[in-house]
Amino acid sequence: MLFHVHMTVNIPLDLDKTYVDDLKAKEKALSQDLQRQGKWTHIWRIAGKYANISIFNVASAGELHDILMSLPLYPFMEVEVTALCQHYSSVKNEEEAH
Question: Which part of the chain is the Muconolactone isomerase domain (predicted)?
Fold first, then answer.
């Protein structure tokens, strides 16, 4: 299943910098591992914000939930999730029909 996920991170300014840097490093390592697995792809950063737009390719909504909950920065995130499906006008669908 494909999901479009928009994540905005709002880290409180009064958090310890070392703690925040550690969370960011763990987040980066986890996201890179998920990318290598093919589960987290198409990551775009939003200019001027600590936010990104991502596509997750997972087996179920439950798996996506588990992944998002495991992200070290999740407690500081605003998350919007949209399920995706392949549109009937996809070139891939037309090629398969012939």
Answer: 1-89
Please state the pTM of the whole predicted model: 0.79
Spatial separation of the C-alpha atoms in residues 87 and 77, rounded to whole Å: 30
Contacts of 5 (CB under 8 A, 6+ apart): 53, 54, 55, 56, 64, 68, 79, 80, 81, 82
CA angle at 28 for the pair 53 and 31, rounded to the nearest 5°:
60
Q: Burial of 40 by CB count in 10 Å (0-12 exposed, 13-18 middle, 19+ buried)?
A: buried
Give the mean pLDDT per block of 10 residues along the chain (98 residues): 91 94 95 94 80 90 96 95 79 55
Q: Which residues contact 78 (CB under 8 A, 6 or more apart)?
A: 7, 8, 10
- Strand ranges in the chain using DSSP code E only, listed in sequence order: 2-9, 40-45, 51-57, 77-84
